[in-house]
Amino acid sequence: LVFDKTTINARNGLRLPYSDKASMVIATKEDKERVDKQLMSKSKAPKKRVIEGRPSKAIGTIRFTFKKDEAGEIVAEGKWITDAKSHTIAEWIGFGTC
What we know:
The chain is of the alpha+beta class. It is 15% helix and 33% strand. The strands form two sheets. The protein has a two-stranded antiparallel sheet with strand order 1-2. Strands 3-4 form a two-stranded antiparallel sheet.
């Protein structure tokens, strides 16, 4: 994903852009089937934490421009501004910290 609301929304704490994320998923296949069949509520199903395995490496910077239409705001253009070699590792880490 390019955009992830957890990098800007502090509801559950801010997540640094170069850090992996863990998701809570239904713990067993059987419980998932119960939820799908509406025999158990999703909020009551036991959960387990799963690391998503996102790459923790900067590959560049993309600048997005947006425009509004009747459906709301949409991406009008995405343009690569820098690549991985444009900055030192220390600079990339600095960009990803608060």
